[in-house]
Amino acid sequence: MAFWKKAVLCILVIQLLGNASGLITMFSLDGWYNSLRRPPGTPPNGIFGPVWLIIYTMIGYAIALVWNQPAEANIKRRAHWLFILQFALNLLWTPAFFGLQRIDLALAIILPLLVSIALTIRAFAPISRRAAQLLLPYLLWVSYATYLNLGFLFLNQ
């Protein structure tokens, strides 16, 4: 399969799954979320959607790069499994925080998510340096989200 087809496929799948998970957010913003005390530096609600759109595109492109590169089977398999783990955790966070309104459970998800993103970057690097670099903004954004998650937890106990 041509690389551009892999890239389009990966970006579409990541966008579809990520945005489907994010739909839960829309139903919680007007009530519960807006009633929470916010930690300093919480951005306006309208920032999250566009940022995730960009990040999901970068994530999709990164996994396409890894898929497209020749690499030893064990190295590539480990990179794919770490990618699946981190993305599954990513998809679980929104329903935990917004759907269940469980800030504590969301924190229990986002902490391993942060670690798994770092491990995925490390696993991607020998296969595709560009793929690893594309995940750095994601790591930074989830680090920021971890701060916000902690802040929401402490301020709204």
User: Level of helix content?
Assistant: over 70%
General shape: elongated
Oligomer: single chain
Rg (CA only): 16 Å
**Could you tell me the strand content as a percent range?**
under 5%
How many β-strand stretches? Answer: 0
Main beta-sheet strand count, sense and barrel state: none
In angstroms, what separates the terminal alpha carbons?
51 Å
User: What is the H/E string?
Assistant: HHHHHH
What topology emerges from the helices and strands here?
Blueprint: H1 3-35, H2 45-68, H3 73-99, H4 103-124, H5 129-134, H6 136-155
Helix pairs in contact: 1-2, 1-3, 3-4, 4-6
Structural write-up:
With 157 residues, this protein is mainly alpha-helical. The protein is built from 6 helices and no strands. The longest helix is centred in the first third of the chain and has 33 residues, at 3-35. The protein starts with a helix and ends with a helix. The mean pLDDT is 94.
Highlighted features:
single chain
Short description, anyone?
The protein has helices spanning 3-35, 45-68, 73-99, 103-124, 129-134, 136-155. It is an all-alpha fold.
